[in-house]
Each structure stands twice: as C-alpha cells, then as structure tokens.
Amino acid sequence: MTHCYMTFTILKRRLAHYLRTPIHNLVSPQTDVSLLCWVRSVRKHKDIIFVDLSDGLSSHRLQAVIHASLWDPKKAPISAGCSVRISGDLVQSPGQNQQLELVTKELDLVGECDAAKYPFRPRKTYNIDLERNFQHLRPRMEKYAAVHRVRNRLTQAAHAYFQELDFCQIQTPILTTNDCEGAGETFLVNHIDDLKPTSPSPPTPPSSLEKVAPKSPAPPPTYFPSQCHLTVSSQLHLEALVHSISRVYTIQSAFRAENALSRKHLCEFTMLEVELVTESVDTIVSITEELIKRMWLSVREMEDFKTLGEDWRDAVDTALAKTFVRISYDDAVKELQGKQLTHPLTWGCDFKVEHENLLLEFSQGRPLVITHFPAKIKPFYMATKDGEHGRLAECFDLLLPVGGEVVGGSMREMDRDKLLESIQQASIKGLEWYVELREFGSVPHGGFGLGVDRLLQYFTNTHNIKETVPFPRWQKHCQA
C-alpha cells in the first residue's frame, strides 16, 4: 500500500510539471508563470495592450498586461478568440476589477482567430437561432461554458451520492431490441449494407474447364437477427442487474423519436436511471428528493452563476429549503377541475403543460411530487393497486419550474402473470427475457429516471433545453 501511494505521489508531481496551473488556482503573486490559453477580450491603450485570458476550466479570467514592444505589428493581430502561449510575473494589480495581473515577458500567438470571420464577439448578445447554427463554436461563449461546467459538477455529485449509499454503477447497452416505454418512438438501427440497393450481376457462363462454384446463401436482411433500436431507457436492463446487485444506477444517453418541438424535448438526452430493492414507492421518492437537494448544494456556490444569474439561485434555494410537496393524482385532478382550463381535464387523462404549470402554482414553485396515476396511462411494467376510479400505478412524477416533468419513477410489477398480461395488452413483443426475471428469485424493486438536461435547465434557469447540451439533436436538426 505504501509503495502504491508513493508511486501515485510521484506520478501526480510529474503531471503537475506538464499540466499548467489553472487560472483559478493563481491566487498569489509569483514569478515565471506560463500559460497556454485563449484571449477573451482585448483593450489597447497607447503602448499597452490589456488582454483577458481564460483556460475554460472556470469562469475566472486573468488580465495580462502586454507592452506593445513585445508584439510585431506586422504579425497577425491578437484578437478575441485566438490562443496564446504567454509567460510573465503575477503581481498585485492597481486596477479595481482584479486582484492580480500578469506582467508579460514572452508572448506567442499559437492559433489565429480572424475577427472578421469569427461569428461571436465579446460582450455582445446574439439571436438564439444564430448561436444554434454554430454548435461547434458556441461552447466558447461564456454562458455555454458555464452551463457545461455546472453539468459536470452535477454528475459528479450524483456519482458521489450513490457511491456513498453503496450503489453500483452499470454501463447498460445503447443498442437494444426493447422499447421500454412501449410508445413506438424509437430510432431503428440499420447496417449501411442493408440500405444499399442490390442489383443481381449477369451470370458468367463457365468454360468447359471450370467448375461452377456453389451459390452462397443470401445474406440476412439485417446486421442483427432481430430489429434493433437505440435505447429509450436503461430501465429494463437495470432490472436484470438489480436481481443480482440490489442497488444499481447508470448515467447515459437515451433516444426518443418524438414529434415534439417544445422547449423541453430533445431526441437525444441524458438520463440518470436508478433501480433498487425496496418495498415502497415512498422510499424511491425520498431518495429522489435527497439526491436533487444534494446535487443543488454541489453547484450553488459555483462562480458560474455570476454568468447564469445569481437571483435565480436564491429562488432555487427557497424552493428546495422545505420538503417536496406531495399530492395524489386524484387530488391533483380535483385541484385542476376548479380552474379555467384551455384543455378540459377528466379523471384518466394525462396532464398537459397547462395543467403542470397550474399545479406548480398550487405548490407555490416548490418541487411537486404527483403519485398514483391511473394505470392505463402508464407503461406496462408498473406495479398497480385498486383505486376509487380504477387501477392505480404505484408511481410518481416530479414537476419542477422551468424543466417541467424531470423525474418519473415507480415500483415494478413483480408478479409474472400480471406482468405478462400487461405486456400482451400493450401488444409488445420480444420481452420474454424480461418476464423470465420474475421466475427465478424475483424480489420487490423499483426505481426512477431523472432527466439530467431538464434538471440542469431548472438549476440554471435556461429557458430552452437545447441550450443545456453541447450538440442538441431535435426533429429535423442534427448538426456536426
């Protein structure tokens, strides 16, 4: 153990030698500081050039003071967006906007950035559609970099939370034969050869000395022996694992070919999905609540909120300070039936955006957990119980401001015959393996799926989910 620790320490020192100190860790005067970073803005004043530097690792910037004699005016100009190799001494700054500044000794332009062609300029705002047209360049804008750093911290917090509770992270497949939600909104996967038109070649008459080669069997119609999709959820595979490891989770992409162009939908999105052995949906709700509060505490002090909006941070603090509001589907319907609705609501209907917004007004902006929906509007895998108006699913949805429905969870049906009946009623094929899980040592279990992008949308008060991911994919849009 001692030898391993010493080896790790040596490697860490070696890495520190090669990896330059992040700008946010430069907190005291020192000599011979060397940086490889980007120029965010340039201000020229007589013989002095003031440059704001960033390495993108935080929202912190470092002002560099460059004497004009260090730069040959015949060379390409130093402009916003270019990258530089710069070294000098870090000293106390006489300016009011920063404590330290870099007095430059050496400067090299590494990567030019033609200001006339570069689409984004410092301190300017742009139409959101223009920004989306440059998905490969917009991460350089400070607001997008800030969102991605918050996302990174969120997922780190989720991993830490589940590891503390002895959950095991599982890598579930992207390619699957299952449609977990049973809605048919899946992307079909084909091998490229399956898409090529086939034209039979004319037969070549054999010579008298040649043998006719036997015909090879026709290739299968697809690369896989059965129809294959991009996964819409990891849940079913996690259920297979939870029958061996009693607490499991995954964080990965999911794909749904929804005909939805709203500000809350993407075709490719990130899901945090959890399965655990438990006998109560209340336990699952409590884990969800504690997880979200832990994730918020992990990011709320980040400097990036100076870019994203500190006032909104106070609103989230207030919303998460108390226990989440819980209400049954029956009571939610009664609450809505007393309102003036554009979309009338009767028992057994799912909630629309209008209904969700009114229910969030009822909860006064606090997270709202709605439990026990009618079984007929929920997927086949949910456990059910009798209700006043019909069968109810042992489930819940979590609504948040801005993001809408962020979490959905339930107890899973443990009884083989009931599950098989639900699958047959939904006319879903290919789930024999899933039913078989109930035949060998099945156990009460449940779980939930959390939309990471929507949670990030709420935490950062980002109006449209397309601005929470680096390369958003939605209907008729797939760039880069």
TrEMBL record:
GO process terms (BP): asparaginyl-tRNA aminoacylation
A single Gene Ontology molecular function, please?
ATP binding
What keywords does the record list, in alphabetical order? Answer: Aminoacyl-tRNA synthetase, ATP-binding, Ligase, Nucleotide-binding, Protein biosynthesis
One of this protein's Pfam families, by short name?
A: tRNA-synt_2
Q: Known EC number(s)? A: 6.1.1.22
Q: Name one GO cellular component term.
A: mitochondrion
Say which domain of life the source belongs to.
Answer: Eukaryota
Kindly give the Gene3D superfamilies that the UniProt entry links to this protein.
Bira Bifunctional Protein, Domain 2, Nucleic acid-binding proteins
Key word Nucleotide-binding present: yes
Enzyme class name:
ligase
Region listing for Disordered, in residue ranges: 192-220
Location of the Aminoacyl-transfer RNA synthetases class-II family profile domain: 149-470
Question: What SUPFAM superfamilies does this protein's entry cite?
Answer: Class II aaRS and biotin synthetases, Nucleic acid-binding proteins
Q: Which family does it belong to?
A: Belongs to the class-II aminoacyl-tRNA synthetase family.
- Can you name this protein? asparagine--tRNA ligase
Record organism = Tropilaelaps mercedesae
Q: What is the lineage of its organism?
A: Eukaryota, Metazoa, Ecdysozoa, Arthropoda, Chelicerata
